[in-house]
Amino acid sequence: MPRLIEYREAIREALDEELARDPMVVVMGEEVAQYNGAYKVTKGLWEKWGDKRMVDTPISEAGFIGMGIGASMLGVRPVMELMFWSFYTVAWDQIVNNAAMVRYMSGGKINCPIVIRGPANGGTNVGATHSHTPENIMASFPGMKCVVPSNAYDAKGLLKAAIRDNDPVMFMESTKLYGEKWDVPANEDLPNGELVIPLGVADVKREGTDLSLIAHGRAVITCLEAAKRLEEEHGIHCEVVDLRTIRPLDEDTIFDSVRKTHKAIYVEEGKPFCGVGAQIAYMIQERCFDDLDAPVLRVNSLDAPAIYSPPLENLQLPYADVIIEKALSIA
Amino acid sequence: MPKALSPNLPSQAPINQALKPSDKVDLYRTMVRIRKFEQRSLNSYQSGKVGGFLHLYIGQESVVVGTQSLLGANDHTITAYRNHGHGLAAGMNMNECMAELYGRATGCSKGKGGSMHYFAPDKNYWGGHGIVAGQTPLGTGLAYGLKYRGLKGCALAFLGDGAVNQGSFHESLNLAALWDLPIIYVIENNGYSMGTSQRRSSAYPSCLAERAEGYGMAWDQFDGTNLYEVRARTQVAIERAHNESKPTLLEIATYRWEGHSVADAMKTVYRTKEEIEKYQREHDPIMVWKEILISENIATEAELKQIDRAAQKEADEAADFAEVSPYPEPESIFDDVYWETDNKTEAGNTGRHFFND
Ligand SMILES: Cc1ncc(C[n+]2csc(CCOP(=O)(O)OP(=O)(O)O)c2C)c(N)n1
Ligand SMILES: [Mg+2]
How many CA atoms lie within 13 Å of A77's alpha carbon, on the beta-carbon side? Predict the structure, then answer.
């Protein structure tokens, strides 16, 4: 019997289990405790864990993210929620100059075991300020890691690994996925008694022979829909590769897939310029040049700030039709 | 006679009464070591051996030496880029500090940090930060960490008078007051942020520390020339942190003799030569302390000279050490980026972490 739980519940379970495992783990952010989280991800955790482990912060991202980084230098393991990843901008100096650089500048004397998590997605008609998808930005800084789970199972396992990791991990969720359900086995049904997915291991979400759709985050779900239709309507068998973590990156799974299918499209909700797809396409052409039967293509969010107007925002983000059209152009 | 030399109450404070003669001499030695180190580093800078910026602390030594001398096993410090004094006062040695300036593998940060980024967490010293006020949330986090772990200690977060206008500092003040964190923010007010005087950069009622009122936080403001005063007044804040877990904002008046950094060609344009000389004459913390030691019959002029010479020798030897130290190996560029890759853990060995072609 599958155990279907929501993506948000999967994250909550990961937090709950890690709070239980390690007394140094503390969850902080705006409205995470008494309000149960802006998206109810942390529902019930304050009642269970109390004020010390579940901390409501003021609206003060630079201050509390920086404070969490400072505490992590002393061995506390804060899991910080950004109500929206979009608000990274006001905490950016703390994230990039302190969390990501302090180890290097100290010659390895310090490490920051901190997780910063929250939703990073468009598509909810909240305008450009609330619709940023900065995973390409996070992944471009050596010193930090970037994780983007596409489903509840991965979200739980990856978050547990992120909390145990001794480096700063930027963990990006999607409000569009919070209410979706996936099969996430209960711990007692798992061979190891718990679900931990190592960072840096991609996952082939669908096997195929004709074309590789490579993606991260919610774009993986869009790719799976496109793959299904490409098979049903056009007889094209797509493989769908989910990076799961962008940095560290599992490049072998990408290359293996491309060597099998000889064609690749990178799909992401971020913008095209210097996007994750730009990096992956570069790596594919460098390492799989002779295996390619077509140029590597990309599907991104359309290159303008996130538009509010609901029907247009739907067009701005990648959707199956666009992927199918691109796929047919190289099929 | 300089004001700071007049007999005053701070010397009678219990924390100062508790000083043994040898402690007082040690305080002198630490200030002199910082100064000699920096004068020597200036020399190296001018002969092209040190890259980047060099922000000298000369003239301000009493602030860090006085405050640091009050700290115990669970007390931590963090500061900005003008940090050589803070590192040495925390117990770092001149060799590692000088070698860092020279960009050598033997430097305290293996040549990866440079002048602005000294660190010694083993000595509770957390850097050395280049972004103005960016260290203040980190300091707040050190205090949070102490409290979270149930340790009786405090954090001292130093910042400049220019840093008080950064949002991250105000956010820190709010968090510290809101959550009763054991922290002392120490504004080292040397009157200028680069070429901008305090009057031209900050709005304030009577002084910068008074801004603490807005957060319901205790504060104090005083002159930092005399170590007795620095110690007596800072001790109040430390006890508040230790015993009540409450923050304090201190503003300590001081003066930097040199330019903002060695590359500051304007150093006598935004302030007069007379002003600089007045501070050198009347507010040199080393001279002031020296006269106190002599007047208290703790040391003779000759004995203190001896300390000066030893510090000079130590600084010269540090420069020699730096000079002959190797540069870091090119491969080391990729060390100290991730804890997991450095420690060759399973996580560190999973997936690609570096993207060089
Ligand atoms: C965010 C940021 N803005 C500007 C600078 C450049 N800068 C470095 S130090 C400095 C002046 C700071 O003055 P103050 O805080 O008084 O410290 P002091 O140099 O006097 O010790 C400036 C403008 C910087 N390093 N970081
Ligand atoms: Mg200043």
Answer: 20
Q: Based on the fold, state whether residues A55 and A169 are members of the same structural domain.
A: yes
Residue from B140, B338, B343 whose CB has the most chain A CBs within 10 Å, to mutate: B338
Helix intervals (H) in B47-151 = 61-68, 84-90, 94-101, 135-148
- Rounded to the nearest angstrom, the gap between the alpha carbon of residue B102 and the centroid of all alpha carbons in its chain is 20
- Interface contacts (A, B; CB < 8 Å): 192
Host H or E run for residue B223? strand B218-223
Active-site residue among A13, A30, A81, A130? Answer: A130
Q: Which ligand 1 atom is at minimum distance from the Cα of B256?
A: 20
The residue whose CA is least distant from atom 20 of ligand 1 is B193
CATH number at residue B241: 3.40.50.970
- Read off the pLDDT of residues B34-45 as tens digits, 9 standing for 90 and up: 999 999 999 999
Write the ipTM: 0.96
Q: Is the peptide bond before A248 cis (omega within 30 degrees of 0)?
A: yes
**Prior bond to B153 cis, omega within 30?**
no
In whole angstroms, what is the distance from residue B201 CA to residue A253 CA?
A: 55
By residue count, chain B amounts to 357
For residue A36, the domain's CATH number is 3.40.50.970
Q: How many angstroms separate the CA of residue B144 from the nearest CA in chain A?
A: 6
Structure pTM? 0.96
What is chain B's mean pLDDT, rounded? 96
B124 touches chain A (CB under 8 A): no
Residues with a CB atom less than 6 Å from ligand 1: B 82, 130-132, 160-163, 190, 192-194, 260
A262 is catalytic: no
